[in-house]
Amino acid sequence: MPQLQASYPLYLNNKAAQPNLDLKVTDKFTGEVAFRTALATPDVIDAAIAGAVRAAEPFAGMASYERQAVLDHCVRRFRERFDELAWALCIEAGKPIADAEGEVTRLIDTFRLAAEEATRNYGEVQPLDISARSKGYMGMWKRVPIGPCSFISPFNFPLNLAAHKIAPAIAVGCPFVMKPASLTPLGAIIIGEILAETDLPEGAFSILPASRDGADLFTTDDRLKLLSFTGSPGVGWDLKARAGKKKVVLELGGNAAVVVDADADLDHALERIIFGGYYQSGQSCIHVQRVIVHEAVYDTFRDRLAARVRTLVSGDPKDRRTFIGPMISAREAARLKGWIDSAVSGGARLLAGGGCDRAMLEATLVENCDRAADLYREEAFGPAVILSKFSAWQDALAEVNDSKFGLQAGIFTRDLHKVLAAWDKLEVGGVVVNDVSSFRVDNMPYGGVRDSGLGREGVRFAIEDMTEIRNLVIRRAPV
Questions:
Q1: Could you report the per-residue pLDDT of 96-105, keeping only the tens digit for each?
Q2: Catalytic residue from among 90, 174, 285, 356
Q3: Closest residue by Cα to residue 187 from 172, 207, 215
């Protein structure tokens, strides 16, 4: 497999810079330092924002085909560097290598979608003669770039969640400054390295690893017109409160539920719940955390699921046999281990897993969890799943909604009427039928309600947030 460099730069106003090597990034499986990167100081962040302001006009003035060419270049280079990108994910995020390759594929998909959307920034002609006073008037509107943007991306999908911010910005001509997660900065840095090969206007992008304390300008600086943040709810809502007048898009946490009805294909549901609950060690906002099963099939499904969970292979993410790799840190594993132990002490029954060794937390399955327990109410963000049973469909939907979060939900049923009832009643950003909440395709509108955030990602929908509508009214003179 490819070898990582010992050190990596940041990217300031399109150019590599290495003012220091202050950020240590560890191999999440071994705990050893894998490489170092430069860490942006407040003066560097200020210079990046100033560069983005200077780049706003020339970037907006680029032709659609020119922005499309930049995105096409990225797609080609990502394909050429596929193995390197996957290996970087495996090391810095502890992501099993097969999952890392899947994320690189999604990175390519996201930039490819953005390249297609770069030439689809449509407007509309609108009749205004709706009454006598506006006879002879017509209107037109178009979308224009909102201006310099601030992006903050999380550790769990260092490539694709960065891509969901960067690619739409390039498609519409918004300069940006990005803060990748300090735990996993390399994916975004490699994207910056590839963007530096293009002819984007100087200042069009900066990729700046930074400490949380030193990154306040990403949120508070009024020169930035949009803040797009993906991460934890506590941090996200605090950033929104301090963001001032800028538009804010938040993709935050989840506590996703899946309902398995009596008529469901149990073989299919089981395999998909294994994926949704334990893929990437459960470190996904749409990780399956709660599984609500009809009482008629509950015992059978519980026993089969528990047996399957016990077979999942944990270990080194570099080994292709591994399904469960490390959590992002021993601290996070200990936090979730504590929630599991507390739930069991409170009456929950442990069906599988529960053990923990540093950052390695076993795939865990419990039933009869108290709804007041942290494991039930909060976002687990790890390989732990809760089972419960229902008898009436409306009760199952009510249990899905028994959460402060509302990102996505999954339902397994063959009954169209139940599907439509779920679509009407579930307070979530998306309902996935005959699959798990963890399913996402990169062109769909993705986001949540309540504590799960504001706005939607997905290239076309991110473009809407990164643009403003500019209206034109024409009074037609008599001919």
A1: 999 999 999 9
A2: 285
A3: 207
